Amino acid sequence: MRRSLKLAAVVLSGSLGMASLAACGAKSTDNNSASAGAGGSSFKVGMAYDIGGRGDQSFNDSAARGLDQAKSELGATINEAEAKSGESEGDKEQRLKSLVTSGFNPIIAVGFVYQDAVNKVAAENPNVKFAIIDSSSADQPKNVTSLTFSEEQGSYLAGVAAANKSKSKHVGFIGGVQSELIKKFEAGYTAGAKSVDSNIQVEVTYLTTPPDFTGFADPGKGKQAAQGQLDKGADVIYSAAGSSGTGAIEAVASNQAGDKWAIGVDSDQAKQPALEKYKARILTSMVKNVDKAVFTYIKSAKDNSVQGGVQNFDLKAGGVSLATTGGNIDDIKAKIDAATQQITSGQTTIPTAP
């Protein structure tokens, strides 16, 4: 299990900030840029991770890449705060408040589970800029920007790939938590698969339901769910389940027949070091370019050009895409390209609910 407490030394604004950050499981890194001065860069960016945190080989890691780019290219001092399994709403609020107290601005919350906490803390701190990934609400304060994605569009392409590669005409979908967000992945994937073969069977399994969000951070559950789908005859399995999806990939890659495929999510999982030994059986990944959204937002914060409301990153804007690592979908490139063109032109509209 990932450590919930990570702390690296950094000069923060006062001992209270250091103490409160340590209490909420945060770590800071100083970029040591020439403009930083004795106390580090004056541009300080905070990130509060979802369950699984940096190192999940998926969603959080994609956000982390955007943060790292801001550190490298924009001279930001960064702080990363880790989530804990089974935490309360108060824990999320305290994590955000600790970043505020320590002078981090902007602050990025990774995942829809932060919506209520972001709304409350942002309302209490109108001079601090906040972003939340994968969520928006009608009562969101003006100093909050929602960074959302058209997951259903990328998942549709994953479904097209799955149906074209399936020999059994039976594919699978594993969702980490049965939420409105993950249902977008399911809806797009199913629609994409059925656009190729209306009779294809799509097996659907969710690992947990709210308020249990451990389905995003339990590879064992992911592996068990994938094995169950393999046993039922599925030969291509797509997981939208955070680090739990690594377990599903392991189950598929370890199948004795050696002819099953896994589809990764969020990051190009065939390129992730921890999944190196399984990459030969990763057909593709539905890449959600959270890093692009995060870096774009942080740059706008530094340029004082942040806009509140919702910023959506769709297929046309490069917010979602299919990975081509390994060349496993090269033979169906024309079909993927055709489906892409139909979506970006508006000819095909993808459902957002199953």
Automatic annotation (TrEMBL):
Signal peptide: 1-22
Membrane topology: Lipid-anchor
Keyword terms, alphabetized: Cell membrane, Lipoprotein, Membrane, Signal
Residue span, ABC transporter substrate-binding protein PnrA-like domain: 45-351
InterPro entries: BMP_lipoprotein (IPR050957), Peripla_BP_I (IPR028082), PnrA-like (IPR003760)
Segments passing through the bilayer: none
Subcellular localization, as worded in the UniProt entry: Cell membrane
Lineage top rank: taxon: Bacteria
Main location: membrane
GO CC, one annotated term: plasma membrane
Similarity comment text for this entry: Belongs to the BMP lipoprotein family.
Protein name: Putative ABC transporter substrate-binding protein
